[in-house]
Amino acid sequence: MHNVEIRGTGSYIPDRVVHNDELSQIVDTSDQWIRERTGIRERRISTGENTSELAVKAARKALADAEVKAEEIGLIIVATVTPDKFFPSTACIVQRELSAGKAMSFDISAACSGFIYALDVAAGLIKTGACENALVIGAEVLSKIIDWKDRNTCVLFADGAGAAVLGRGEKGIRSSFTGADGTGGDFLGCDAVPVKNAFIPDHGGQTPSYLTMNGKEVFKFAVRIMVECIRQVLNKEGCSLEEVKYIVPHQANNRIVEATAKKLGIGKDKFYMNLDKCGNTSGASIPLALDEIAGRGLLSKGDQLILVGFGAGLTYGAQLIEWTK
Ligand SMILES: CC(C)(COP(=O)(O)OP(=O)(O)OC[C@H]1O[C@@H](n2cnc3c(N)ncnc32)[C@H](O)[C@@H]1OP(=O)(O)O)[C@@H](O)C(=O)NCCC(=O)NCCS
């Protein structure tokens, strides 16, 4: 069995910035409401690039950062709920674009916990010896499934991609905790294609599916489960919160993070946030923030770090990581 470390990170966000004021021209909202209730000031929205294109751009940067060639990658996982196509998977499109040899490639659908799930799966496969290096990407073009007439949701979500290259190492991912609670599945989701075929009388055309959300229920779940996930990964290693330099949470709402910090009895400063600039990019949010924190030189070799996410499913998970770069 090998341990698994993060060798490099990369990210990409579309050029188009959408400020809160611009949204207030589309729906009945205001910059003040969005900032006070969520912490978001602006977000990036794709003006034509699809999920795989964002993913490839983030992946190229992660490979360069890790100094690993695409052909050395044995596994590509893309965490996304906004794939280019039902099939083939976004990961296979990425594999083709990167010319990543014969890497096993597939997508994971775990919404905003997707990157955490993907890290777990990739680490497991590296540990068994199935591959040496893995490329794990969180990529979303959520703007495709947003109802731009729904102020409850359109102010929250955005587009972006983040990637990490994983490989064998002595330290790296120390502990992990993941799970799901399908009974909360109706709180956040987006319908797929309805069952319609030659044997069912015509129901009158297909309507586009948009993301729907019960914000209050998701909020309550998020705070409870973030606290649980953080405690679990620390307890598994007998590590204390004081030893952790940064917690990189799924970037959904400042108030969720504030409530989590309060319950844990720590300052909010330990949580690294870039939500104000990026909004909620679902599966991309954690690797986007991780790449930013690493790029800013805020992490040193030996630092302890927690990644923690929650999302539709309902899904959740965290990893305690010793930074090895
Ligand atoms: C969505 C969220 C910001 C709403 O905040 P809230 O404090 O719960 O607000 P409420 O839902 O109670 O709504 C309060 C009022 O603001 C209104 N409102 C909702 N969105 C609004 C917007 N963009 N602008 C202005 N008003 C808005 C509501 O209609 C409601 O009006 P009413 O009192 O007249 O009915 C919050 O619940 C949240 O962040 N939940 C978690 C969502 C999330 O993170 N999802 C992704 C998880 S991966």
UniProtKB/TrEMBL annotation:
Active site (record annotation): 112, 250, 280
Highest taxon of the lineage: Bacteria
Pathway(s) per entry: Lipid metabolism; fatty acid biosynthesis
Keyword Electron transport (UniProt): no
Region (ACP-binding): 251-255
A GO molecular-function annotation: beta-ketoacyl-acyl-carrier-protein synthase III activity
Keywords: Acyltransferase, Cytoplasm, Fatty acid biosynthesis, Fatty acid metabolism, Lipid biosynthesis, Lipid metabolism, Multifunctional enzyme, Transferase
UniProt xrefs under Gene3D superfamilies: 3.40.47.10
Family indicated by similarity: Belongs to the thiolase-like superfamily. FabH family.
Protein name, as recorded: Beta-ketoacyl-[acyl-carrier-protein] synthase III
Lineage, uppermost ranks: Bacteria, Bacillati, Bacillota, Clostridia, Eubacteriales
